[in-house]
Specification:
The chain is of the alpha/beta class. Helices cover 41% and strands 14% of the residues. The chain has a 6-stranded parallel sheet with strand order 2-1-3-4-5-11. The model has no long low-confidence stretch (mean pLDDT 88).
């Protein structure tokens, strides 16, 4: 399918289609339109017209082989919204198109990130059903998110060429592009400690989660004893963040942290929305997240967070996968990208907490 055909199906110009597919950060007139363009491109196995591109470059022929790539998302299921995953997926899709590959299928298997559910499930059957659902045979697989060890072993056997894009290392089980979750958490918690906070909470996944380990280890580094009452196990969603903050608001002042590290930005945004609803309760803790999703720039106060370089992760992931497919390497390769603190306005000194206003 060409850009012209996608434009006709979506009712927009070819220029708009091109900008959306080639620039994942391009902001359409609406998010719905951007998703519609991507949906049509996926459905029709869009691939850039390499002949036209080569003609512009003065290349008359090419022998490049076209590869089919599958994506597997393990953090969410159909219908769930995970902005970090969506932003990363759009960048991966753009990179797949840029490399003249075809995005064959997108699978969502939230069960693969939950070790307890995996223990109770027939993972072989789940993978076979997943692979047999469309009858397509992909050359390789990119996994986005944490993946159970047994599930990863099965996926490696079925696909042979696998790359993981994650914040939790696979410990060389497969090729991976990693932004170290422990370092992410450490950077966030150290920021809170430097501001003078000693009562610091954690909200997010606690089981086999590198960000939780980074949170605990950083507190120990500064001789701060983690308070079990400030640690809340929660799914990484906005709704869970809202509910957790509602629970904090019901406590007395002495039973609430002055600062909270959220394992992702969606949790943090849910907390800020809750604080907006209950402004008269006068509890305004410092809140910091991680991922630096687009929405983090539009909260008030703007959300402090840890930036994860999604563009670089996407490029390295596909490069690693194509190199493995083409026989360039056989041993497991781990590439770690650097994260960075984005210091906005949702964190302040403990004594200034009551002067902050939360609303979205």
């Amino acid at each position: 399918m060409s850009l012209k055909e996608i434009a006709a199906k979506t009712g927009v110009s070819m220029a708009t289609v091109s900008r959306v597919l080639n620039n994942p950060t391009y902001r359409c007139s609406s998010e719905e339109l951007r998703q519609k363009i991507w949906a049509v491109a996926r459905e029709e196995n869009y691939i850039p017209n390499e002949a036209a591109k080569n003609l512009k470059k003065g290349i008359t022929a090419t022998t490049r082989k076209i590869y089919y790539i599958d994506l597997l998302i393990t953090r969410s299921t159909e219908g769930e919204r995970d902005s970090f995953v969506n932003e990363l997926m759009l960048r991966l899709e753009s990179e797949i198109h840029r490399q003249n590959c075809i995005l064959s299928s997108i699978y969502r298997q939230g069960i693969f990130s939950d070790d307890q559910q995996c223990m109770r499930s027939n993972l072989e059957e789940i993978v076979q059903q997943m692979r047999g659902s469309d009858g397509k045979e992909a050359n390789g697989l990119i996994i986005i998110g944490k993946c159970n060890v047994k599930a990863l072993e099965i996926l490696k056997r079925v696909y042979k060429n696998v790359v993981s894009v994650n914040r939790n290392s696979t410990n060389y089980m497969t090729d991976e592009v990693n932004c170290d979750g422990e370092k992410i958490a450490s950077m966030a918690v150290e920021h809170l400690v430097r501001l003078g906070h000693r009562s610091i909470g954690y909200v997010g996944d606690c089981h086999n989660e590198s960000r939780y380990e980074g949170f605990r280890n950083t507190l120990f580094k500064y001789n701060i004893q983690p308070d079990i009452n400030y640690i809340v196990e929660a799914a990484h969603s906005e709704a869970e963040g809202f509910e957790v903050m509602e629970c904090f608001l019901k406590r007395d002042d002495k039973d609430r942290p002055t600062a909270i590290y959220c394992a992702n930005d969606m949790l943090a945004i849910g907390m800020i929305k809750c604080l907006n609803k209950y402004r008269k309760r006068y509890y305004t803790p410092s809140i910091i997240g991680s991922d630096d999703i687009e929405e983090a720039q539009f909260t008030q106060p703007m959300l402090s967070t840890i930036h994860i370089p999604k563009d670089e992760m996407s490029k390295f992931a596909l490069s690693l996968l194509l190199d493995r497919i083409q026989g360039g390497h056989s041993g497991a390769v781990k590439l770690e990208v650097e994260c960075s603190l984005v210091d906005r306005a949702s964190c302040d000194l403990p004594e200034n907490a009551r002067s902050m206003e939360y609303y979205i």
